[in-house]
């Protein structure tokens, strides 16, 4: 007697969807583990090269990572880190605020209207090609030894990045979407708020990312030349004392702080603001 054939129950659409979600989560977990492993390997390689260079260079030329780490801990324990980093952060954010207030409207006009683009483009392009060192020196000449010099330098460096990226974002808006909004009776204010602004937000974050590192550098450079507080001032003080370990320790703290700001603040803020985008949901 032949055995009855037992057929497997057909997979329901809901089951297929759940399996797909599970596979997507596993793939995302593997990607995160791979990124973490590569991140650790990259840092290990950099520290290894540093250690080898410190070992083979003449004594006193380059301190090794352990010596710098001890110096960094002493700076943190002394309390100097909080006061000086707070001063640098406030000046940098103030400069960024000025850059956004000026660059975003200029970029909107450049991207929205051809005649305004002709008016602003050359000036913004020239401003973006001027070396950051020139802005640092110019700010010190104008304001001297004050906190306004670094703020002006950061604003001058960052404004062209913001303007150009916002302009590209506006030019990338789907004009068919604009026409459809107009056909459905949307007001210019509604189109600006619901079509243009969501489109330029990713470009604005890209501008912040590109100008962030440059702005920090020019802010610290301005403090090195003529600051009265902040990270750059501390680097200049250690340099005058021929304390190479102290100089590198403050530089390392500066790098660590920038990475924390970029990854814990800017990246999280970008993910929250752009959570509606499919690629952001997939990254989660």
UniProtKB/TrEMBL annotation:
Keywords: Cell membrane, Membrane, Transmembrane, Transmembrane helix, Transport. Signal peptide: none annotated. PROSITE patterns: ABC_TM1. It is found in: Cell membrane. One of its GO terms (cellular component) is plasma membrane. One of its GO terms (biological process) is transmembrane transport. Pfam families: BPD_transp_1. It is a multi-pass membrane protein. The chain crosses the membrane at residues 36-57, 93-111, 118-145, 151-174, 195-216, 247-266. Residues 85-266 form the ABC transmembrane type-1 domain. Belongs to the binding-protein-dependent transport system permease family. This is NitT/TauT family transport system permease protein. It comes from Geodermatophilus ruber.
């Amino acid at each position: 007697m032949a055995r009855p054939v037992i057929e497997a129950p057909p997979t329901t659409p809901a089951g297929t969807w759940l399996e797909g979600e599970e596979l997507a989560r596993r793939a995302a977990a593997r990607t995160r583990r791979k990124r973490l492993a590569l991140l650790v390997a990259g840092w290990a390689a950099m520290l290894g090269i540093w250690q080898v260079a410190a070992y083979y260079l003449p004594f006193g030329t380059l301190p090794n990572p352990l010596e710098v780490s001890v110096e960094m801990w002493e700076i943190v324990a002394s309390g100097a880190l909080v006061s000086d980093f707070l001063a640098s952060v406030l000046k940098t954010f103030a400069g960024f605020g000025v850059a956004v207030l000026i660059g975003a409207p200029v970029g909107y006009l450049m991207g929205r209207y051809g005649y305004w683009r002709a008016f602003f483009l050359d000036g913004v392009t020239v401003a973006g090609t001027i070396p950051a060192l020139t802005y640092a020196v110019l700010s010190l000449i104008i304001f001297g030894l004050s906190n306004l010099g670094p703020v002006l330098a950061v604003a001058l460096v960052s404004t062209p990045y913001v303007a150009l990226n916002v302009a590209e974002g506006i030019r990338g808006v789907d004009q068919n979407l604009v026409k459809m909004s107009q056909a459905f009776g949307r007001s210019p204010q509604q189109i600006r708020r619901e079509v243009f602004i969501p489109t330029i937000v990713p470009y604005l974050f890209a501008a912040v990312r590109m100008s962030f590192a440059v702005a920090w550098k020019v802010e610290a450079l301005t403090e090195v030349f003529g600051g009265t507080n902040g990270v750059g001032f501390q680097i200049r003080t250690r340099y005058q004392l021929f304390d190479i370990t102290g100089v590198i320790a403050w530089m390392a703290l500066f790098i660590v702080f920038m990475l924390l700001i970029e990854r814990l603040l800017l990246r999280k803020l970008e993910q929250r603001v752009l959570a509606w985008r499919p690629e952001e949901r997939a990254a989660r």
